[in-house]
Amino acid sequence: MAAILVMVVGLLIGAAIIVFTVLNPPSAPASSPAADDAGHSETSVRQAAQLVIDTYSSGSYGEFWDMWTTEAQGLIAREEYVRLFQLCPPPGPSTPFTITEVTVTGDDAEVQTTRPNETLAFHFVFETGSWRSVPSPTLRQDYQTKTVEQMVQERQAAGSCGTATVTPPATPPADVATTPPVTPPTTPPVIPPATPPTGSTPGSTPGSATVPSATPPTGSATIPPVISFTG
């Protein structure tokens, strides 16, 4: 009787184990620590950062924006970021940066770079399997609170802008007719009538002068006026 009881209990335990295994299959093996360490090694960060930094130093600012984290891309639109550098490009020629130091802390990395007359730090975050750039806290504040024109004015005042890209004037749409300028009609000048010289009388000969007659004293004979001509 005891043997039968033990057998029944064993069958029940076995059935319970089978049901638990079916309902809870073993999970897939987690990624090995070695693979994570390889993606977060200094060499891995340096290689990824060099590509991002070279894109920035070459002046490909739209492609550089594409290498930001998703959260950073929400700070400023791609078109506005490109326009910022069109209005205020970095002064001097585009010189590549040299990475001097890499510090990795979990999913964050700080990369120190240098080039002639400039030292710059780039911050990276490991996102969706790759290292992506993040603007500095100062730049983040500017992108969130200022317009492109305001940032350009501040950088120009600080002397950190090179020669701006000249934007050609907008071309009017093809379906808009251009009205030629209207030329006003030419009005002939009005010539005023000639004004006779002062002191002349109507009907007198031009160039002549009329000499008024002298009033003779009372009681004297009247002397006829003398008229002289100047030609």
UniProtKB/TrEMBL annotation:
Q: Where is this region: Disordered?
A: 154-231
- Bias (Polar residues) ranges: 211-221
Q: Where is the composition biased (Pro residues)?
A: 181-196
Highest taxon, organism lineage: Bacteria
Which intervals carry biased composition (Low complexity)?
Answer: 163-180, 197-210
Q: What is the name attached to this protein's record?
A: Uncharacterized protein
Organism, by scientific name, is Streptosporangium lutulentum
